[in-house]
Amino acid sequence: MHERVIPASPNWYCGRCSDTNQRGVMGFGARNTVYLLDVSAESCSVLGSLSGHKERVSGFSFCRQAGQDQLCASSSDDGTVKFWDADDRVLLKEHSGHQGTIVALHWSPADKNLVVSGDDKGVVVCYWFNTGDCSSFFPLPKALFSLSCSPHSWKLLALGYKQGIILLVDVSKKGEVLHRLRGHEDEIHSLSWSPSTPALEQGDAPQDPPGEEEDFARGSGGYLASGSRDQTIRVWSTDTGRGITTLKLPYLKKRGGGVGGGGGAGGGKDRLWLSVHWPDDRPSQLLSSCFSGELVLWDLGASGKQKWSVLGSGDQNHSRIVFNMSSVRLASGRQLLLTTSMDREIKCWDLASLECVWTLPTLGGSVYALSFSPVATGLLALGGADQMIRSWDTLSLQNPYLTKTFWQGIRSKITALVWHPSREGSLAFGTDDGKVGIYDAFSNKPPQISSSYHHKTIYRLAWGPPLPPLSFGGAGERPSCSLYSCGGEGAILQHDPRSLASDACNIDKLIRDTNGIKHKLSPHSDFSWKPDGTVVAVGNEDGSVDVYAAPALKQLCSVQQHNKIINTLQWYHPLAPQPELQYLLASGSSSAKVYVHDLRSACEAPADPPAVISEAFRTLGAHTGKITGLSWSPHHPARLATVSYDHTAQVWDVLKGEGLVNYRGHGNRVMCVEWSPVDPDVVWTGADDFTVHEWKPSKQEFTAPPKGKKPVGLREKNKQKKINMAAGGQREGESPPVGEREASERGTRSVDGERETKAVNGETETKVVTGERGWRERDPKRVNGERETVSVNRERETKAVNGERGWRERDTRSVNGERDDDDEQNGTNGSLSTAGGLMKKPPAPLRTKEKPELMKRKKARSMLPLSTAMDHRSKEDLLEDCVTLATITHSPEPPAGCVPGKGPHLQLGLFSDRPALHSMFQEEEEAHLAAGHPDSVVYLRLWSGDVEGALRTATERGELNDHLLAIAPTGGYRVWVRTVQDYVKQLCLQDQHLKAASFLLSINKLHEAIELLHSHKMYREAIALARARLPDQDVVLKGLYVSWAAALEKDGHLSAAAKCYVAAGAGFDAAKVVSKKSDAPSLRAAATIARLAGESQLAHTIALRCAKGLAASLDWVGAQQVLKAQEVSSSKGVPSTQEVPSTQEVPSPEGLPHTNGVPSTQEVPSTEGVPSTQEVPSTQEVPSPEGLPHTNGVPSTQEVPSPEGLPHTNGVPSTQEVPSTKGVPSTQEVPSTEGVPSTQEVPSTEGVPSTQDVPSTEGVPSKQEVPSTEGVPSTQEVPSTEGVPSTQEVPTTQDGMLVHRLCFCVAEILSAALTECEAVSSHPWARPGPPRGGSGPEPPQDRVRAVWQQEFGVAGGSGVTSLLKDLASVEKSQLSSSSPAHQVVSHVAVCLSTAVLLWLRGGDDDELTKAVWEAVEAPRGVGHDSMSAMLCSLIFPDGDVSVFSRRFQKVLVPVAKEASAALTSLQAFLNYRFLFDLWWSHAPSATSANQELPNVAVAGEAVAETAVTETAVTETTVTETAVTETAVTEATALSRRAAVLLSEPHAAYQATQRDVARVQERLTGLVLHHARAHQQGAQDQSMDQSQDQGPEEPETLMSLSAQMTLYQKDLALLPDTIKTYSHPDVVECSLVVLHLARGSTLVTEALQTTARDLLRHYASSPDAQRAARAFLA
Fold first, then answer.
1. DSSP for 603-624?
2. Could you please report the per-residue DSSP string of 1250-1308?
């Protein structure tokens, strides 16, 4: 599934969290997962992982028995022990026998079924794997730290405790204690048994205790080694329970904190973990860890003082303490040692040479950033939550995991990385605390840190061209490129890489100045420079993407597609194939969708104002979580890799819009992705599971992410939220994770890991389980070239953050409440059995006795304790005090040495004068402070009149209260004000903000009170106070509304945020907030808000988005209503701007009265009660132009002959009376609309005038045709309908809304005619019209013109020019082969709307012809051939493209060459369909395959023969004659149509195109052939050439290039009209003609000759040549 993996770091502070089996498989616990490695080769590889624990893995052990070494067990802080099959990586069983946290686990080497585990309460559980039996015992009521099963007897078990005690117990006797081993002074980290046969089993244990220097070379057994935090290793005899020898760790390096030399052990002890390991087959050698990561090999049989040697040399050692060691002997006889360390590396050692074989780096946090160097190929930089940057040479052949680590100057998580585009080794990084720096990867110098910090997490870093002011100056004065950073506060800063100490500049100022923006810019969340540096795309927290042109940052367009925060943006890769796709921009947000937009038109031809793009080129929506990363492939055309919170990575084919590959190897949210720059089949991903994966898309089995289920992490998180809420929620004072973007739709992007909360003793305990390092040193130093930290005592009381356990608290009490005294007696706790028995139930906590309800009242504490105490002395002393006081009172001089109120005469101060009393108070105050009673000091100072001093004392100690504040005015106004201010600060520290604000009001500090509430996010209270006290237009009130709106928007309360913006007068922001939901009701409300606020442009933009969404769901009525609301609001109360004088007549052509809105003496009421100046004649007869009767319902006294003497286009004239459409009868005789049709019958609709009627435009005579206004009466006033003026006028565009309504109208009509989807709601006029004159459905252009005139009042005039201008700015849907039908119809609707408006405007037909051609060509260009053919047939139902409308008598007469070519192209595709229809209709039948007559003639003769009788001969003759005439007519039509199809210039162009494609294909094959030949050798190359090209003149790159040049020249010589306006395949049409000639006599000889000539010259493809061979023989 994956190739290479950098796994998560092994858990820290665990006695046995890694192990190795005899087959060379190593397992280690990392967070809540067990990773498996294959260590049998020269380099390791990750086999997989075992996932199932909910909390940190605290222990792991393999079964040592042959045949079962694939079995393993793991323990966790969640209280469970799980059993796994390491080969299949499946869970076999589990047990939950512990109630506390499991701290140690071991699978007995002597019994294949026994697994022993212990928890922090001292409970030991024995579990038998085969039977599932479980037993527990409680040998000592102390915290257990480590355990180890004997490899010689399943009964023996060694237990190490936190207090330094080691117990040897007998498992078979329910935990009976055999020996208590004493000697260590601190916690036991590790225990290891000697591999030799123990004396206990042999029965020859020595009776006398061996000496300290016992000879280990003889190999006698029964020994146990222990490593302790007291820096010693002790070896014990298990027979006697006495120590054999003590080994003290050597001081290999000088370290800070008093550890170096032979100094004190305080500093080193705090940072020491002493792990011991006794290798197999080496009874006299013992391995241990040391202070700073060194590994020490002890020779227990050596004499003298030097008994140890260090493994490795130079930088091979670990740089920090080692936690676990395990060894394995491979089948080759090589013995390896595997170690895990705090430096996040796993090392493999050869015990024969004592050298390091390989090193595997691991990760201690989530991976947030990946970046390949564009200069050093294959150099991958990765950064994450472990506050380190690693550069990985992924192309190294010697070491597949060759990495270099950078950590200096980094104090927070790495959230962004980017290499310099041209400077080798220059790596920029961004951190979670907002810092930006640059590292030199090829030096050991600390990084440069920018002096400008972001306030929140860095989301994105990128190099780009310098912008003002850095772009000013000459070539040598400005940087070649600038470093840009985007932070969580929404700002994008430009840094000068030459001097990061200088201030960075915010690009928002440049954007505002260049584009004249006054309103607030949306906070930015991401950005991406186009690779050529000309354009930058900026993603915002409101989901929009703005595109700016460098260097002035002029806005080109705005993409309004996402409705949630933009998480990532990526322009198309500059080195990828198909450079025409270089303007593709991919964007991902929290809405789980990826949109790809083609911004070529917006960037190359920007509109003014900037275009708003709301339709994506492609939508990729298979993910079920937030999108976090994007990467375009540099090897494939339009291939994109995406990663998401749904734990998967997806590869897409963007052009097809479909997913290709889905990778599911990660166990948590995937945060970043990079495509390999050298291998097209390799992708790299980093995730929240602390891993980086290298995987190949070609080896994945899934094509799309899993659906229907939330990710496991999200489900657990939601479940934990419920638990937290039930437990009382978040603890007071605890802030949410920094940089957490998923906090809301607008919130900051997630860079922290998840938090895990569990209940501990009824309280909630929160610890970070992802995204944090285990423990972070505050003051890192470098001592002797090695990283050093200052030891902090609190470290031992802090649990591990990265899933690692920290030092346990060195408490003086044991788990069950007793003190940790070394009692020699068993059963010190009455609730427990004796030491050898089983524990029935866990020890109960001690309970405190409750005090009785009726207790003796406690006497109040004296305010003068010293004088009071002196009054309780002996009688003699008291009498002496009386005499002394009398002497002082009555004698002029006091006794010698007597000072009342001080010293031994302190008590006399109460009875003497005031100075003596003050002296007594001073000493009493000192006593109160010493006793911890500062409140009494305050009262004494108050009594002495020092109110200010009393209040100062209470302020310094933070003990002000309401009572003291009430006394404060006695000290004066200044004292009172200062005391209130101090009390406010104290209340704020106590989170009593409302009370603090009230006290500020008492001293008339209104603005400070408001700001206090505001700063503590009490927006509602702050606004209420400000609204009650401040004026309505105060700027402070507006600022409060804006701040509250921002907070509400961040939390997802969009409606409330919009109300705040409205109250602040920021209608623009209110509309933007409401429109974030992107549903129809929200968009409708947002458009209304923007319109009411005067933001017409924004209102129109949002209304158009809403209308497009409704139209996509086929709610046409709703779409029109939304646009109409904007249109009506824009024109409400505004009189028409086009008036016709009321006192004079406007002559029609040739001096006749006008036929359409002629002035009369009657007013025409206009909309909204405003009278119009346009009048209609009421009493006079209005003859039509050229003496013809009027066709517009106006009374006339003459008949209306049709043009050219033929019957009228609407039927034969009759004498019947035709009533007016308004109910006014007419006396004019009008030709009937129901009669005998003429030979040139033209369909008419609702009183359409003849071809000689010309409409007038705005009262100006015209000689063009005039559409009728559907029978407007002549004798009554003509009211306007819904504000629509008469057909003479075209209403104003109302900021472009009318043109959008017209386009939606056309789209609705086309959708009803071209698609089969049933609309949610539609208008009556959208249904296909009735047949006209029997010629089929009404053409769409005729129906559009009629509907526009009737519903929208658009029929002609100067307003059409404005509509055309507005229509030019309407965005057309970008079409592709995968575009849905409604998107194609929308595109066609814009084209057809353009054609109808050009028709209404008049003039030459060139633009009209090209617009019609574009409407028909658009569907065919993206593969919708059937839709194109249907549309063409609907527009030209008679098969003649020159007749655009028979109803309105419009004939297309193009003048320009391009327009003529477009018309010819339309005719060609009509003829193409006619040719195929004719071929199928005249195909020879099965019974007369060789008959020459067409099927029509055959059918006619068959009917005639069946009816032959003696009297039917004449009828048969007539039938044959009719058939012959029909055949002649079809033959003529075929010759005329085939002449258009069999065009030799188009045949030459198509043949050249086929030749170019053939040469390109051969060039591609030749390149691939040479690539294969380069790998296979010259011999294979020659064989391939002989097979591919033959023996004669093999094609070379030069010859193919020459052919390509010739073909390109031939194409250049052809006219552009042939290239632009395509024709059907001429060779195909020639073949059809010749096939038709075989079965029909319709094809003339000349036509056949032309077809054969074209085949001879232009049938170049093999298929065409084979098909033409039968006709050219």
1. HHS--SSPEEE-S-SEEE---S
2. -TT----BTTB--SS-----S---SSS----BTTB--TT-----TTTHHHHHHHHHHHH
Kindly state the tokens that stand for 14: 């665990």
Residue 634 confidence (pLDDT) = 93
Q: What is the C-alpha to C-alpha distance for residues 142 and 121, in angstroms, rounded to an integer?
A: 6
Return the pLDDT at 934: 73
- Please tell me which residue, 19 or 1336, carries the higher pLDDT value: 19
* Beta carbons within 8 Å of 942's beta carbon, 6+ residues apart: 950, 967
Residue-wise pLDDT for 737-746, tens only, equals: 333 333 333 3
Helix (H, G, I), strand (E, B) or coil at 1400: helix
The DSSP element (H or E) to which 943 belongs, if any, is helix 934-943
Tell me the C-alpha distance between 1288 and 1140, whole Å: 10
- Length of the chain measured in residues: 1673
- Report the C-alpha gap between 317 and 290 in whole angstroms: 11
pLDDT of residue 718: 61
Residue for token pair 């060894």: 327
User: Alpha-carbon distance 704 to 681, whole Å?
Assistant: 18
pLDDT tens digits, one per residue of 1333-1366: 545 678 888 888 888 888 888 887 778 888 888 8
Question: 1550 pLDDT band (50/70/90 cuts)?
Answer: confident
Residues 222/255, Cβ–Cβ less than 8 Å: no
- Under a CB-based contact definition with an 8 Å cutoff, are residues 797 and 805 in contact? no
Nearest in space to 1453 (alpha carbons), one of 1407, 1487, 1419? 1407
Other residues' Cβ atoms within 10 Å of the Cβ of residue 762: 7
- Within 10 angstroms of residue 222's Cβ, the number of other Cβ atoms is 25
Calculate mean pLDDT across residues 166-170.
Answer: 94
CB 61 within 8 A of CB 105: yes
pTM: 0.56
Contact 11, 31 (CB under 8 A): yes
Number of separate helices (H) and strands (E) present in the chain = 37, 65
| Rounded Cα gap, residues 484 and 470, in angstroms | 12
**CA pair distance 361, 347, nearest whole angstrom:** 9
Distance, in Å, from the CA atom of 97 to the CA atom of 83, rounded to the nearest integer, reads 14
What was the pLDDT predicted at 1526? 56
Residue 785: CB atoms within 10 Å: 8
**Token pair belonging to 522:** 């949306």
What secondary structure, in 3-state letters, does 1095-1164 show? Answer: CHHHHHHHHHHHHHHHHHCCEHHHHHHHHHHHHHHHHCCCCCCCCCCCCCCCECHHHCECCCCCCCCCCE
The encoded tokens of residue 54 equal: 């909910």
Residues near 677 by beta carbon (within 8 Å), at least 6 away in sequence: 372, 374, 377, 378, 634
User: From the centroid of its chain, how far is CA 890?
Assistant: 93
Bridge partners (DSSP) of residue 288 are 276, 296
Question: How many CB atoms within 10 Å of residue 210?
Answer: 16
Instruction: Find all residues with CB under 8 Å of 4, minimum gap 6, and list them.
Output: 45, 46, 394, 400, 401, 693, 694
Most confident of 304-313, 893-902, 1051-1060: 1051-1060
Residue 1522 has pLDDT above 90, yes or no: no
Main-chain dihedrals φ then ψ at residue 1076, nearest 5 degrees:
-65, -30
The most confident of the ranges 579-583, 848-852, 1059-1063 is: 1059-1063
Between strands 611-613 and 554-559, the pairing is parallel
Most confident of 732-746, 969-983, 1392-1406: 969-983
pLDDT of res. 1535 = 76
pLDDT tens-place string over residues 337-377 = 999 999 999 999 999 899 999 999 999 999 999 999 999 99
Say what angle helices 1006-1015 and 1035-1050 make with each other, to 10 degrees. Answer: 10
